[in-house]
Every structure is written in structure tokens, then in C-alpha cells.
Amino acid sequence: MENQIFFAIGLMSGTSLDGLDICYSKFIKTKNNWDFQILTSETIPYSSEWEHALKNAIQLTSEELLKLDVDYGFYLGEKTSEFISKHKIINLDLIASHGHTVFHQPKNKFTLQIGDGRAIKSKTNKTVIYDFRSQDVILGGNGAPLVPIGDELLFSNFDACLNLGGFSNISLKRNGKRIAFDICPVNIILNDLALKLGKKFDDNGDLARTGLIDYELLDQLNQLKFYQEKAPKSLGIEWINEQVLPLIKTQKTEDLLATFTEHAATQIANIFDFYNIQNVLITGGGAYNSYLIEKIKSRTETEIQIPKKEIIEYKEALIFAFMGVLRSLNLDNVLSSATGSQNDHCSGLIC
Predict the structure, then answer these.
(1) What is the CATH number of the domain that holds 127?
(2) Which H/E stretch holds residue 89?
(3) pLDDT tens column, 275-325
């Protein structure tokens, strides 16, 4: 059987609002395995207008949100078209878009990632696959995390994969099945606090290093009910608004950064030790936060591996491109063992 080769672009916008990640990759399917190569990738920073629009989308009226859904789809299409032209991309089977999450309430059977795929197609004239989460929620799942299918088929040489993005989420193999779940908030809190000090993010955790840990707040955070719940489970901005923000009162910003960094490191290390993880691949923007990584290392014996830059920054976009390829082949691209849905399934709308 000859190898099958696919070329795909993955689009990813995370809750930390770092920008739009675009990843163009080649996927090779052999008889028993998948392999990949990132060919080129780029992060498009959001303008202040887009950052404000996406951050405050949760406050919009129905009509305003519908308009933003389409407008953001056109934006994604325009940026992807520019990316294709800039890098002279000729071979391209599909574009897979995660969209930007506005609402995520799996217990109420809905989740919303804006960025209409039809608008993306109108600007690129390519097959577009989008809305990967809704079907899983309808099937009783959390609609997250979805990247474990990529961890299973592309990164199986690691005991676990941890993403440090807006939220931290982990994927690992247990009893022959891959399980995955969100651990705790990371950059969605740290970036917001850094903004109060005039920084887009806490570079290397240097601001947190200057702060003092508020142990009373730390204890309140560590006692939040979510951390006692069993996996699969996931977090959204609603949880931050309801459970975390009310705990923040008049603390100094540097102290809050120190406290939240300590909190994230504690929760992550607890998971490593609970599951007896031997080695872990860490990706996402938080992998550059040396203070956070130091804090995690000080609390666990787990071997931490930080990969090359393109994997750190584009693993999620890569895997959404891969999910698009699987969807185009009508192969399962969502694992029920990770999301809690009724069964493994093939998800994503095609246009």
C-alpha cells in the first residue's frame, strides 16, 4: 500500500488572545502510522480592535454576536489567503479552523466557536472544515480537549502531553485508552494581570518573581470544587468569571501573578504525581514562562521536555489541521475517552 500524503492548514485562536496561529503541514499516512512535517507557520497578532471584540464577545447581543461570527470568519479567510500568497503555497487539500471560543457550557449542551467557515471559504476558495466541538457536546461530551487524537497518533512517544495556553490541559494513556482534561487556568489569568502592568504577558515570569505569594488566596484557589472533580472535565471563561474573579480583591498585581503561578504549578504537579507520569511534552505559550516551569519542576520528579519552537507554538494548530484531514477521510477525530461523549466520532462541518 502506497503512503497517502495530505497538505492542510490549521487555524487556532486560544483563550489567551495571543493572536491567530496558522500552521501549514504535511501529513503522511502509512499502513499503521501517521507522520507529519510542519512546513511553515506564523502567528498573526490581533489588533487592539480585534482583541477587544473577541475578549468582550460574551457580552454581545444575539444580533451582534451573529455579525461578529461572520466578520471574524471573513477575517480568518483574509489572513489565511494572505498567508497562502506570502508563502507561495500550492499544494493544499483543506483548511481546518478551530474558531474562537465565546461560550463553552457542555453541561447545558452547547459550545460556540465563532468564525463562520463559509466566510473563510469565500476568501480562500478552499475546502474548509470547522465547528469541531459542537457534535461532541451534543453526544454528552465536554467538547474538549480535542487535541488528544493528535497526541495519540502523532506524539505517542511521550507518556503525556501538557499544553500551557489560556488553560492548561493534559493528555495521557491509561489502561489502553487516552484520557484528557483541563487542569487549571494559566495564561488567561496571567496575561490579564500582566496587562495591568502595561505588559501583554509576563515574560519568563519575571513579574511574578517580584511578587509575594498570598497564601490565603492560594488556599482558596486550591480548594475550588473543580479540582476535586473526576476527569473528563473542561474549563471555560464562565468558570473564571464565577469562581476565580470573585476571589481577587485588592491584592497587589505582582502578588497575584506570584500566587496564580504558584497555584498553576501546584495543580499541574499534583496531576503528574497522581498519574505517575514519567515524562511529559510541554507546549503552548506557557512553556516559555521559565518561572512557571521552575515551579513545576520543584514539585515533581516527572521529566519535563520542552520541544523546538514550532512545536511549542503551533502544536494545537497542527493538530486541528490533522483533525481536518481525518474528517475528510471520515475517520474518527474525537476520542470519547478524552471528552466523555457517548462514543468516538468524526466531527467537523465541511464546506
Answers:
(1) 3.30.420.40
(2) none
(3) 999 999 999 999 999 999 999 999 999 999 999 999 999 999 999 999 999
